[in-house]
Every structure is written in C-alpha cells, then in structure tokens.
Amino acid sequence: MHSLSTDDEIAAGDADLPAPRHSIVFSTLVAFVIIIGVTLVSMLGGLYMADSLEGDAGAINQAGSLRMQAYRLALIADQDPANLNRQVQIMDATLGAAAIESALMRHSGSGLSELHARTLEQWQQTMRPLLELPTNATAFRAEVPQFVAQIDDFVGTLQKSSEKNLEIIRGLQVGTLFVIVLIAFLLIFALNNKLVTPLRQLTAMARQISRGNFTGQVTVAGETELSMLSRTLNQMNQELGSLYANMESKVDEKTAALTRSNATLQLLFDSARLLYSQPDEPVVVMGRQLSKVRTILGCGPVSLCLNRVAETDSHTAMTSASLLPPAYCKLPDCQACPVNQDGAHLPSGNHLISFELRSGQTDLGSLRVEQPAGEQLEPWQSRLMITLADLYAASLSLANQGQQHARMALMEERAVIARELHDSLAQSLSAQKLQLARLKRQTAKGCAPEELADTMEEIERGLNSAYRQLRELLTTFRIKVNEPGLKPALQATVKEFGANSGVDIQMDYQLDHCPLTPNEEIHCLQIVREALSNVVKHARAKSCALRLTQDRQGTIHVTVDDDGIGITDSISPAGHYGITILVERANSLNGTLTVTPRDAGGTRVYLRFPPDYRLLDLKQERSGS
C-alpha cells in the first residue's frame, strides 16, 4: 500500500467535512447587498421626487404675483390709464409663464390644470374685457376679489401638491433609515451569535492548546464555517491529546531505555576496567559484579559457574546473593546439576537460562540467570548476558594464558640457571674434582712435595675461579630493573661500576625509539655488565665508552671501548674475561660478539643482533614478496 501525499491527505480531510449550509460570509454579503440596494433605491426615489419639485417655488411665486398684479390693474385703471396696456401684457405673460406651465405638467393629476384654466378663462373673458373700457373700471374692481380667490385656490393647490411630494421624500428617507437600521441590527445580532461568540470560544480553545491542554471542546450551532471549524478543532484537539499522551509514554519508554542502556554500558565499562586492572584475579571481580548485573537486569538471581581448563568438572560456583554456591549447586557432583537436566528446572519451579563462557573450543564455564517458568529474557537482557559472558571468557582466557606464560617463564628461568651452573660452576667443580683425584693418586704414589704443591696450587686457583663464577652468577640473577626499559637499567649499571671502580664510564644511548623485548633487554644488560666487570677488574683502564646504536636495517650495535692494557687473545685466559659466557648470550639474541684490541690501545667488546620486531617485519616482507 502506498501512503497518501500531504495534498492527498488534505483533500481527503476536506472531503470528510460537510460543506456549510449557511455561510456567514454569504449571509453577511447578502445583508450588505440589501443595505446598499435599499439605500440606492431611496437615493434614486429622492432624486426623482426632488426633480418633481424643481420649479414649484418659482411657479408659486409667479402664481402669487397674479394677486398683486390684479390689485395693481384696478389701481392703474383709475389713476394711470396710460400704463394699463403694459400692465395687462405683464398679466398675460405671468398667466402663461413657463414656470407655471412646467408646474402644471408636473402636477397634472392634482387639479391644477382646471384651476389654471378657470383662472385664465375668467381673465380673458371677464377681467380683461372690462379693462378695455375705461368706464368699466368700477366693474373690474368688483371682479378682482373673485379673481384673487381663484388665484389663491390655484396657489394653495400647487403648494399642497409640493408639500405632498416633500412628505413622500421624507417618508422614503425615514423608511430607508428604518430598513437599514433594522438590517444592521439583525446583522450585528447574527454576527455576534454566529461569529463573535464562536470566535471567542475558538480563541480560548486555541490558548488552551498552546498551553498543552487538549481537553477543551467547542460547540457552535448551525451549519456555518465556524461550526465546521469548531468540529475540525475538536477532532484535532482529540487527536493531539492522544498523540501527546502517546508521545509522553514513548518519551518515558525512550528515557527508560536510555537509562537502562547507560547502566548497561557503565556495567560493561566497569567490568572491563576492573578485569584489566586485576588480570590475576578475574574470578573475584566477576563475583563482585554479579549483584550489579542482577540489579540492571531486574531478574532473578545471577550465578557464575567456572570449569577447570581441559576438564569438565567445575571448580567455582557463586551467586549474586551471597557469592556462595547457589542452593541448586551439587559441587563436586556436576552431573546432578539441574542445568544438565531436561528443561533446567529448579525445585522452586523456576528455570535456568545459561550463557556459555567459551574461548575457542575451550569451555570455561557458564553465566546463569534464574527466571520464573515460561518467562524468557528480553532481547536487551540476552545481549547484555552474551556480552558479559564473552568479556568474562576473554578475561579468564587471558588469565589462564598469563599463568601459562608465568609457568613457562619460570621453567625457562630455571633452565637458564641450570645452563649457567652447568656451563660455568659445574665445569669448574668437575675440573677440581679431577684435580682432587689426581692429588690422591700422587699422594698414594708418594710423589715429591713439589709436585704435590703444584697440584694443590692448581686446586686453589680452580676453587677461586669457581667462587668468582658463583659470585658473578649471583650478581647476574639478582639484577633488578626498578624502571621499565633498558636505558634506566644501563644508567644504574654505569653509575654502579663508575662509583665503585673510579673508571670514567660514558654512555651514548640512541635506542629510545627501538622497542626491545624483555629477553633482549636482560641479555643486553648482562653482556654490558660482564664487559664492564672485565674492564674494572682486568683492563686497568681509566676511561670507558659505552655506545648503543641502530643502523638503517634495524640491527642493534653495542660497543664497549676501554683504554686499558688490551687483550692479546680472544680466548679467556683462565676464565678471567668470561668471553665464553658473552658469546653464549650473544647467540641467544641471534647475534654475534667479538672481543678485539683497539689500535689506540685498550679493548673493544662489540655486539650486533637483529631485534625481534625487525625480524617480524622481515617475515612479513618475505611473505608479501
């Protein structure tokens, strides 16, 4: 199955949410459209009515002036007949003025036209003919009040018609204002109920979510955008709450796992450090670690059973509880151990889970955990036990190898002592034994005292030589190196021989970057000591130079030069120089040693040998080629 992309998930989520039936945005737009429409209709109606009133004021003024002109005509008819004709023309022009005609057209349905027609008819048929005859001025004045009354009716009707239009405009404006206020009130009420209040609730819910509180719920009635948003936020809040709870549990689990891993690593580190610092006592270190192993595992008792190398029986068993053999242990009868039975069940109902300690094909024992029946270790517990078993096996193997090497070193040391005694002291004593047998035969034969004295003198010299060899052997076997390395030992040797003999001994040591084995260091030290001993005792030298160098091929060169009496033969005269011992030590280093006189006087002891680490390089080079 392929997972949905982000866009697909959003689309799927949108498909699950129903579309709002009553949109707040749409309703608000409709309300504003209605308000705008009503306002527009009101404005248009007002403009129309205002247009209908345009010119009414002028028409009223014109109509009102007719009354004054009628009285003026009556006055002029009596007092100024000459201007009567012009005043009549003005009266005719006023009755037919454009403002009055326009007002008649605008108020065609109000009766103004009939009033105007009667007024015009009375003027033309009654009033004007009376003015044409001067003798009828009195009759004209009598008709003026009736004529003015008709004009008053006309002006009043026109004024009422204009006021009616003004009332219509006022009513339209008041109605429009009422409708707009009503719609605005309904809109504000609806927005407060459907927008402001839900938004407050949603905002409060958002604040709760920001503080990590996912228990809030918001209910918005209706089918609007905010109701859909509230349902979405409620669903999201529930999901966030569950996710947060799961996240906290996962964080707790991860924290516990990290703590457990840290404790496990600390246990392994402490075990490795203790086993490394106490390589000769790994069993004691393992026993002390069993209780910590049990604490970290959180399981039943942990026990350790160790076998003898090359044997099947166990020799040590201990448990994390008391470092004593566990209750089920049957030492020395290992065949009765529950581990060797089917299921490894204990009398208590628990069973044993074993982890073998192996070094190659060698079975060194087992590390065991006691668990309730049917309950297995978790994977991390098994990995820890396997790692500890491997670590303990490696430590035991190294300890066994160290003990084996110590045995081999002891046997080799004893062989070296035996060889030294055989090559030096044993031969000297054997020679003295022969000399003593010779003395007995001479005494039995009754030889001359001079011959007996010569034999006794040879026996005395031989005993002195054997004693000297014994002391040299004791000195050699008692050599102590307080600091690791050949250089400190040589410095101590030079200081020792220089202080006791008065010979000025100088040393040039250039092997600081040459790693020598302990065997090579011991043989080099013994050869140098033997050579310096010969210089001090036999060379009669004032100064001596000791030089140790290494050439480009890696060969070690050791030179001891003195300015003494020199040597004429490389064969030891009566054992005075011990050349034979020096040569044997050089052979043990796979090297060569020569003792030769120097041209400038004195003797040179020269040793050269290849160090073991260079022999390893040569072997690798040969195998590579």
Summarize the structure.
This protein is α+β, with helices and mostly antiparallel strands and 625 residues long. The chain has 15 helices and 9 strands.
Query: How many domains, in number, for the residues?
Result: 3
CATH superfamily of the largest domain: Histidine kinase NarX, sensor domain
Q: Work out the radius of gyration.
A: 68 Å
Distance between the termini: 58 Å
Which oligomeric state applies?
Answer: single chain
Segments where pLDDT lies below 50 for 5+ residues? Answer: 1-7, 9-15, 573-577, 617-625
The CATH C-level name of the largest domain is: Mainly Alpha
Strand-helix topology:
Layout: H1 6-16, H2 24-53, H3 56-79, H4 84-95, H5 98-106, H6 112-132, H7 137-210, H8 225-277, H9 282-297, E1 302-307, E2 314-319, E3 351-359, E4 362-371, H10 379-445, H11 449-477, H12 486-501, E5 504-509, H13 518-539, E6 543-550, E7 556-562, H14 579-588, E8 592-597, E9 603-609, H15 612-624
Parallel strand pairs: 5-6
Antiparallel strand pairs: 1-2, 1-4, 3-4, 6-7, 7-9, 8-9
Helix pairs in contact: 2-7, 3-4, 3-5, 3-7, 6-7, 7-8, 8-9, 8-10, 9-10, 10-11, 12-13, 13-14
Description:
- The protein has 625 residues and is of the alpha+beta class.
- The protein folds into three domains: 12-245, Histidine kinase NarX, sensor domain (Four Helix Bundle (Hemerythrin (Met), subunit A)); 262-401, 2-Layer Sandwich (Beta-Lactamase), CATH 3.30.450.40; 483-624, Heat Shock Protein 90, CATH 3.30.565.10.
- 65% of the residues lie in helices and 10% in strands.
- It has 15 helices and nine strands.
- The protein has helices at residues 6-16, 24-53, 56-79, 84-95, 98-106, 112-132, 137-210, 225-277, 282-297, 379-445, 449-477, 486-501, 518-539, 579-588, 612-624, and strands spanning 302-307, 314-319, 351-359, 362-371, 504-509, 543-550, 556-562, 592-597, 603-609.
- Strands 5-6-7-9-8 form a five-stranded mixed sheet, covered by helices on one side. The protein has a four-stranded antiparallel sheet with strand order 2-1-4-3, with helices on one face.
- Helix 8 runs parallel beside helix 10.
- The longest helix has 74 residues, at 137-210.
- The chain is rod-shaped and about 230 Å long.
- It starts with 5 loop residues before the first helix and ends with a helix.
